[in-house]
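Per your request, structure below.
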């Protein structure tokens, strides 16, 4: 691939680099910005697709791979089926950190700044269907994108909320892990997104650092005793990184965690002395790693008393109510394997399934937070008719007994564009539309025509 022209960087940014790189490092860094941005994806192992032959793995995340070139993801039905997420390679280092921690099985994690959902979907996979993730995004339009990506990923272990970090203040002691992937000045995105250069200024760095400190002030008390807090940014400067770790470690009782590294990865470890302890941060420079600029650090909350959380007998909520499994049609219930392990809820016209093991925590969260999505929406009862939800189609809940309509690439693209498709040989009624055996949505075969139930808002326009 061709190299790019050297971007025109603000002089104050280059002089600020001296706090994290020596002169030789700065000149290599500037050359690194001329190299093409690597493209990488991370697979959804719950959807059983492997990497294409010959792809190079990202060294710190076994489900992530570098692509040879950027394909049209929009024109790949497997992308819409949620079989992979397009994720920048450096940020998949989160997997390596998670693997090195002593997280309990069935952990509950909070991703406080989660949209569009790169790290949330990684966390969702890592936690697995026995774990639970609260993926939060304060900005409404971004929370909607996070919800869509959560639905596509489909594990059913994620609650999407739209709240300011301060709204979590009564929820301390629930989480085994809190991730703060903070909004930042984006220095690490200069190569991938040159617009980030125009937005950069020392004033903006100071503004971002102050905002991050406010977020950490809210987040610092949320992990349980002995649980972890991971802080990340896609920027290099110390104000938004080391200084914030020092703030966190001096405001709350935390212990340092050192993450094992392979020298060949090119990641730079930074030492952060705070009150006689040394904390650690990990910095990714584009001239040293095959990825974009990134910083990440992990700390462990000091031990103490754990709070017990019990399921309340009665659940009161303005919009959400527990419903028995007979609330959904018999033919749908019979398709759901392990209904006895699921608690059903009704929210408006929608019926949702959630693992009973997560019920107590979910109900507690629902009292304090604005829930945008949770578990798996199975379907909606509209004027007496049951309409299966797209969310259920994309979820990893078993749908073995449902008749399928296997589509070719051409047909799958027509389906995703919401065009007419045919189902001549198929039984009448609801069919699960699949591409390469992976569900991409629903159709209803009426015999003389087929209704395409792909969500209007998700329609592929190219
Ligand atoms: N974790 C995401 C991922 O991997 O896809 C990227 C998160 S992005 C770096 C930071 C997010 O924080 C943005 O979605 C932004 O809307 C959100 N944000 C902005 N201001 C915030 C605030 N004051 N408190 C919490 N989150 C905020």
């Amino acid at each position: 691939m061709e190299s790019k022209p050297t971007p025109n960087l603000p002089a104050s940014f280059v002089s600020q680099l001296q706090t994290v790189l020596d002169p030789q490092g700065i000149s290599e860094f500037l050359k690194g910005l001329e190299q093409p941005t690597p493209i990488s994806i991370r697979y959804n192992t719950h959807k059983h697709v492997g990497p294409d032959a010959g792809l190079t793995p990202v060294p710190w995340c076994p489900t992530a791979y570098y692509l040879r070139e950027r394909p049209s993801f929009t024109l790949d039905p497997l992308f819409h089926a949620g079989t992979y997420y397009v994720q920048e390679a450096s940020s998949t280092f989160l997997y390596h950190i998670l693997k090195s921690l002593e997280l309990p099985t069935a952990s509950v994690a909070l991703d406080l700044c989660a949209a569009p959902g790169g790290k949330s979907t990684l966390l969702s996979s890592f936690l697995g269907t026995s774990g639970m993730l609260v993926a939060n995004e304060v900005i409404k339009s971004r929370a909607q994108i996070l919800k869509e990506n959560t639905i596509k990923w489909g594990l059913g272990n994620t609650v999407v909320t739209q709240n300011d970090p301060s709204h979590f203040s009564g929820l301390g002691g629930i989480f085994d892990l809190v991730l703060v992937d903070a909004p930042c000045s984006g220095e690490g995105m200069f190569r991938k997104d040159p617009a980030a250069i125009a937005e950069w200024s020392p004033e903006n760095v100071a503004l971002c650092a102050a905002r991050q400190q406010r977020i950490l002030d809210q987040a610092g008390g949320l992990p349980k005793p002995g649980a972890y807090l991971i802080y990340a940014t896609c920027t290099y400067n110390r104000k938004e990184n080391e200084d914030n770790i020092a703030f966190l470690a001096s405001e709350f009782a935390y212990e340092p965690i050192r993450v094992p590294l392979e020298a060949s990865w090119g990641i730079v470890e930074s030492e952060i002395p705070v009150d006689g302890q040394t904390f650690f941060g990990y910095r990714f420079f584009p001239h040293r790693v095959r990825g974009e600029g990134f910083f990440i650090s992990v700390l462990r909350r000091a031990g103490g008393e754990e709070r017990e959380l019990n399921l309340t007998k009665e659940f009161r909520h303005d919009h959400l109510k527990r419903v028995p499994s007979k609330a959904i049609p018999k033919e749908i219930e019979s398709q759901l394997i392990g209904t006895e392990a699921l608690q059903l809820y009704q929210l408006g016209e929608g019926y949702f399934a959630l693992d009973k093991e997560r019920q107590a925590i979910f109900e507690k969260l629902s009292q304090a937070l604005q829930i945008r999505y949770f578990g798996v929406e199975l379907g909606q009862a509209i004027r007496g008719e049951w309409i299966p939800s797209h969310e259920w189609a994309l979820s990893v809940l078993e749908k073995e007994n449902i008749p399928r309509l296997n589509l070719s690439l051409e047909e799958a693209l027509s389906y995703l564009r919401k065009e007419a498709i045919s189902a001549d040989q198929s039984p009448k009624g609801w069919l699960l539309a699949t591409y390469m055996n992976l569900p991409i949505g629903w159709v209803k075969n009426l015999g003389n025509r087929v209704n395409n139930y792909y969500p209007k808002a998700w329609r592929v326009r190219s």
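The domain at 402-462 is CATH 3.10.450.720 (Nuclear Transport Factor 2; Chain: A,).

Regards,
D.
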